[in-house]
Write a structure and sequence with these properties.
The protein is an alpha/beta fold. The chain has a single domain (about 10-210), classed as Rossmann fold (3-Layer(aba) Sandwich). It has 9 helices and 8 strands. The strands form 2 sheets. A 6-stranded mixed β-sheet has the order 4-5-6-1-7-8, sandwiched between helices. Strands 2-3 form a two-stranded antiparallel sheet. Strand 5, helix 7 and strand 6 form a beta-alpha-beta unit. Bound molecules: adenosine-5'-triphosphate (ATP). Adenosine-5'-triphosphate (ATP) binds near residues 13 and 21.
Length: about 210
Amino acid sequence: MTAKAGEVTAVMGTNGVGKTSLLRAISGRHPYAGGTVMVGGTALDHPSPFGAARAGIAYVPQGREVFPMMTVAENLETGFACLPKDQHHVPDQIFDLFPVLHDMIDRRGGDLSGGQQQQLAIARALITKPRVLLLDEPTEGIQPNIIQQIGKVIRILCEQGDMAIVLVEQFFDFAFDLGSDFYVMSRGEVVFNKREDVLTREELYAQVLV
Ligand SMILES: Nc1ncnc2c1ncn2[C@@H]1O[C@H](COP(=O)(O)OP(=O)(O)OP(=O)(O)O)[C@@H](O)[C@H]1O
């Protein structure tokens, strides 16, 4: 599977086909028996989560996993761990993308709504200045207006052109609207791949349902 900078690579498939396991393996959180993870032509040899983060891979997990007892600011600061000391500050762009985090900067992560937590989880990943952003079902359990905002943010990140975004998503229309390249998995393997210019909605829908 290849994910190009400046676009969304969507990974789809029914429940339990291995989408989360794939993202966890790429981000150093899950062992894998075969294959190689490469970033910008450099192979990573079964990296730790820290090693993968240093190599530019950021993972936004399904269920968000914000630290509930830590404030929004403290949650964001955990992203500093893989950056040199002189980059230990939250860029203004983070608050431009997610104004609500600025308003809630001293609130505990656990006191935010699900949608706000999702925004915090994405912001925390962006702090690490990733070359590859892995998003695992960012719309799960989120209300429509926040889903729209998250879609807007993903588009802005794509337009910047320097980050490859890999989106695992069950919300078909969200993935179809944002994606440029589509992979469908079944039983732990990629079984279908097409780019948007040669793919119809109906064809993808049929593949995802198999
Ligand atoms: N390549 C693989 N080889 C063997 N087992 C796998 C592989 N990929 C995933 N699994 C196993 O299949 C199960 C489901 O995997 P996973 O949670 O990654 O699927 P998913 O597609 O993300 O599901 P969901 O849509 O429900 O989140 C897990 O028990 C996982 O360990």
